[in-house]
Amino acid sequence: MGSALAITIGVLFAVSIYLLLRRSLAKVIFGLMLFGQGVNLLIFSAGKMVRYRAPIIPPDATTPPAPYADPLPQALILTAIVIGFGILSFSVALIYRAYRSRGTDDLETEEETR
Amino acid sequence: MILSALLVLVAGAAAAPLLYRWMGARAGWVLALLPLVLFLALAARLPDIADGRPIAERTPWIPSLGIDLAFRIDGLALLFLLVILGIGALILLYGSGYLKGHPLQGRFFGYLLLFMIAMCGMVSADNTILLFVFWELTGIASYLLIGFYHEDAKARSSALQALLVTFLGGQALLAGLVLLSIATGGSFSLSETLEQREQVTAHPWYPAILLLILFGAFTKSAQFPFHFWLPGAMSAPAPVSAYLHSATMVNAGIFLMARMAPALAGTELWRGLATTAGVATMLAGALLAYPQADLKKLLAYSTVSALGTMILLLGLDTVLAVKAAMLFFLVHALYKGALFMAAGTVDHETGTRDVRVLSGLAKAMPLTTAAAVGAGLSMCGLPPLVGFISKELLYEAKLAAPYIGPAVTAAGVAANVLMVAVGLIVAFRPFHGTLNHTPKPPHEGKWTLWLPPLTLALLGILFGLAPGLIDRGLIAPAVSAVRAQETEVTLKLWHGINSVLMLSIATVATGFVVFRLRHRARPAAERIAQSGPGSLGPARLYEWLLEGMVQCAKFLTHTLQHGSLRGYVGVAVSVMVAVTGAALLRVWSPAALVWDFSDLRPYEGVLLIAMIAGAVFAALSNSRLAAIASLGIVGFGVALVFGMYGAPDLALTQLLVETLTLVILVLVIYRLPRIASRSTPRQQIADAILALSAGAVITVLLLIAQNLHPEPVLRDYFVQNSLEAKGRNVVNVILVDFRALDTLGEITVLAAAALGVGGLIWLRPRRKQPEGGES
Amino acid sequence: MESLFLRTAATLIVPLQIGLSVFLLLRGHNEPGGGFIGGLVCAAAILLWGISRDFPTARRLMRLHPTTLIGLGVLTAVGSGLAGSLLGLSFLTGVWAGSIPWLPFVGEVKLGTPLYFDIGVYLTVIGVITQIAFALEEAD
């Protein structure tokens, strides 16, 4: 599945960057969201893609039965997902605030503070 | 003991504003006791130190870097310490009178003590890094003191100028000290370094070390062409000028050279650099001083000249010259401190410092006059004052200098002639003759305003009549420390009739003539001063550099922080594509890229195609709900991928976060306007090309990365030690145990984001004030 | 968003969800779950309550203001790290003391600073998500 996933991640990056380059605030939010997904998948799949088992040690063993997935990227991605949510929410709030005070959702207009 | 003494001063500095609130200007009297007590304590140790038993102590500070709070008071440090503490006590007393009624006087006392701490620490430091720290602290304290009248824009800018020029030198000094430490085997201990003269002077870095350290010394001691900050710093209150700009801070460079002399002196480079800078500064300062009309400017430029003389003497590098330098340092501190304070008193009581206006103050201000005349005679080098002994020794040292003796002596005579004239202008002009009209009717100041300068002037007479008080006990140990060998010093007022005496007489006589001719000579001197040494040249260059820096920063900020998100994203992505693409091309080979669809299961194919379709549809759709729904498909698809590849925790998290994200988006997105296509087709195509190339780079990067199999060292460590941490879910064990600090940081980020959201929505400036009107 | 069906469903589901979140939190050290996931489930439950009724009701359900919860969570996590420091170990070193032999559904729960740390994460995540949602919901 590695190669197919690589293509999918490439598409996610391309689409999210395209969205980040739009002038409409809503599209920028969508771009941010997709970008986060792409990055998490990128970290996740930057290794050999085999259908490993989860890195959980059964009650009667001292290590998980091989082959098991690398737990470290998982720990990194887990917090990254939640932080991504925090950052996205902050951006959404910021964008919303900016829209309310500027009166437009067009990113390329000159400032018109109300 | 030294460290605790410094800490006592720190406590004094901290308590100063409170003390002032409690007892007003008299706080200065109490605070003056601190340096006075230290002065007496040190004076009691004088015999020990004169016998070659320095006070030393060491407290570890950063042991791993070899940086200690190491202090060592030898003869050189003692001489400087006594001047710093003794004059410091007088200045605190003087400041209590001079700034009486100023609302920030308490703060002033605090700054003054802070500066005193920095100076004391610097001269007694026995660790090069510690010395540097105190060196910079003197700069910071002097910035606060010079800019004390902070409502005055000129005071602020000259404070900044002094700070920047001396900090520039400070950076050079630090570099020089670090190189020196490397050259001597990595030790930062000053006393150890000073014993390795052969090793230092033979080292290939010696020229660089010397240049850097001397650069630091020259900027601090206002050597030409860095002299311009010193006259500028005259916007400071008079006590500050008397303390920093005559007796202490400007002598820090002299101290540094003297301190480093055992390791660095004795080479042609040392002699060449220091004598050149010294002669140039001595002449430039004298020439620039003579035409001035402002009392403090006259004194400031004459200080520049005196500093040049001291640097020149240290540059001559003979025992005689070092003796002359150490004596001249003391003598100059005494008379210049007194003159600055007397000038301040005159300014304080008459409201002007213009020597063309001031006249005949002797009757109204007898005690200030006495102080000024006493100090002025010392400056002119007349017997029986200590200034005379000092000048005799100066000429002796200059005459005896090998090879360059005649030239240096000629320059010295020229400078001294002008100094005599300046001394007469400062010490006689305002007091002699008939009383002139001044902004304030002149009268004698309070005792705090005349006692300190008078004390210094009387000391000048005392040491002149009884030079035995200082020669063996004070000057000799200092000279011994600089020469790193036992040296005898015997000072006498009367040497008999010899060539030096002839020179002295000629100097004073010519100086008197130049003084009388000042009205006629002033225009000519001004012309020479402005064309020759270029009084304004370096100052202009400084202003030009400063302005250029600001303009450059403005330009950069406007170019880089233009405020367009499209621009930022465009630049970032283009750089990513270019750099990563170039790196990929370097390792490119057809074999590196392995397309492998063999293990792709049909349902996985369908899932990935659905994710791609969802992403593309979200980008193209102008319906908000449709876009959110298709983003949901991508998000849940990602969760499934995690689930299929051994990451149940990730799958669960992704699933939940995706749900919550959709809720958030729905909450907000309908409050934003409908999505409108605003870009032109050309923009869209350009953006698409950039986006697709970024996607392609990522895909290729990933395909290559998937075929590299680095050793999973960390994975094995975590898996094997997970049970020890009493957990079977290794991912969770990593999160809450092995890498808990990371997680702590991450929940802090989350907290910050949530507080930010709350702040953005809940807290906001009120649009309309109740009284009406837009805010 | 008033709907009888949603209200009834929420009344049934939300208590289950909150129970589930605690379950996920406690077993997280041995099976999939943990503070992040548990916190997300609990926050989702509170939001479901808010959507099915209204957000002020959901806020009352929480009793604590989300900001307070965030502070409490981060402090709990920091506090769990200080235990190690007090024992002369480095900050955040795991210290274990005893265990609860059996809890329904979960089984044995070992008591130690990593568990308190995870509880800190759990509280922080609940606070963060609810604060964000409440704020954005109230935006005008």
Q: What would the principal axes of the Cα set say about the shape of chain C?
A: flat
Class by alpha and beta content of chain B: mainly alpha
Strand arrangement, major sheet of chain B: 1-2
Average predicted confidence as pLDDT of chain B: 88
* Broad shape of chain B: elongated
> Counting H and I runs of at least 4 residues, what is the number of helices of chain B?
32
Give the helix level of chain B as a range of percent.
Answer: over 70%
Low-confidence stretches of chain C: none
Distance between the termini of chain B: 59 Å
Number of helices of chain C: 5
Secondary structural class of chain C? mainly alpha
Question: Can you describe what's shown?
Answer:
- The complex is a heterotrimer of chains A (114), B (775) and C (140).
- With 114 residues, chain A is mostly helical.
- Chain A has one domain (2-102).
- Chain A has three helices and no strands.
- In chain B, a hairpin with a 4-residue loop joins strand 1 and strand 2.
- Among the domains of chain B are: 270-516, no CATH class; 573-714, Four Helix Bundle (Hemerythrin (Met), subunit A) (Up-down Bundle); 715-775, no CATH class.
- The radius of gyration of chain B is 36 Å and the shape is elongated.
- In chain B, helix 16 runs antiparallel to helix 20 (447-465).
- The model of chain B is unreliable at 768-775 (pLDDT under 50).
- With 140 residues, chain C is mostly helical.
- Chain C has one domain.
- In chain C, strands 1-2 form a two-stranded antiparallel ribbon.
- The longest helix of chain C is centred in the last third of the chain and has 26 residues, at 113-138.
- The two termini of chain C are 18 Å apart.
What keywords describe this structure?
heterotrimer; A: 114 residues; mainly alpha; B: 775 residues; Four Helix Bundle (Hemerythrin (Met), subunit A); 32 helices; disordered C terminus
Short note summarizing the structure:
The complex is a heterotrimer of chains A (114), B (775) and C (140). Chain A has 114 residues and is an all-alpha fold.
SSE diagram, text form:
The complex is a heterotrimer of chains A (114), B (775) and C (140).
Chain A: H1 2-20, H2 25-45, H3 71-102
Helix pairs in contact in A: 1-2, 2-3
Chain B: H1 2-23, H2 27-44, H3 46-50, E1 55-62, E2 67-73, H4 75-98, H5 105-124, H6 128-146, H7 153-183, H8 190-194, H9 197-202, H10 206-220, H11 229-232, H12 238-247, H13 252-264, H14 268-289, H15 295-316, H16 319-350, H17 366-380, H18 386-399, H19 405-427, H20 447-465, H21 471-483, H22 499-516, H23 518-531, H24 537-560, H25 565-586, H26 602-620, H27 624-644, H28 648-669, H29 681-706, H30 713-721, H31 730-738, H32 740-762
Antiparallel strand pairs in B: 1-2
Chain C: H1 4-27, H2 35-52, H3 55-62, H4 66-86, E1 96-103, E2 107-112, H5 113-138
Antiparallel strand pairs in C: 1-2
Helix pairs in contact in C: 1-2, 2-3, 2-5, 4-5
